[in-house]
Amino acid sequence: MSISQEEDKWNWLEEDNGKYSSKSLRGLLENNRLPVDLNPMEWLRWIPLKVLCFVWRARLNRIANKVLLQHRGVPMDSVECSSCFGEIEDTKHVLVKCPFARTVWGRIGEWCGLEIDGNLEFRDLLDSTLCINQPTAKKRTIYTIFMATGWAIWKARNAFIFNGVRLSVESVVDGVMVSTYAWMKFRAKRKDVT
Ligand SMILES: [Zn+2]
């Protein structure tokens, strides 16, 4: 066995030159070849790549919440949630359990006609849409809405932490409705979306 004297470096295995490219990432996403079993549903092509990437990271507990940053050695004054100051800010808390997130999910649940279980991890909440007794098209719509909801809650969290802007539950829910409508109507060209 020999150990190379060369410095370790990261290589992006999807390109011959080892350099990351968004084109090859899209290829991975579209071919469902990411190195984890994300979910039994295909990657929905009408969802923007940035949202898919966010959801992928959130499912793996890799979004930059305070607990994760502290774990990685980033100096933090506190790992308490900046919204409620009640609990530590981990992925489950920020995306599902925080009172702000819970209220958003409650409204989204009313909109979809579903009871949302606020004790689930975000990934389990997403996967729970697979068990709904509805046609596949309807399940995909709800899955899309749930992805958009996680993304919108995370953006609201960032708007407050980085810009001091406190978004209302209403504006977040409206944003989810507008973006899912646009994705499905114009990107998926679904004629049943009105
Ligand atoms: Zn909170």
* Sheet with the most strands, sense and barrel status: none
Question: Which word captures the global form?
Answer: globular
Give the oligomer, counting copies of the same chain as homo and different chains as hetero.
single chain
Give the count of helical stretches.
Answer: 8
Bound molecules: zinc ion
> How many angstroms separate the termini?
64 Å
Structural class: mainly alpha
- Helix share bin: 40-55%
Rg, alpha carbons: 19 Å
Number of β-strand runs? 0
- Give the rounded overall mean pLDDT: 82
Percent of residues in beta strands? under 5%
Helix-strand topology string: HHHHHHHH
How many structural domains in the coordinates? 1
Ranges where pLDDT stays below 50 over 5 or more residues in a row are 1-16, 33-37
Protein name: Reverse transcriptase zinc-binding domain-containing protein
Domain Reverse transcriptase zinc-binding: 20-105
Organism: Tagetes erecta
InterPro entries: RVT-Znf
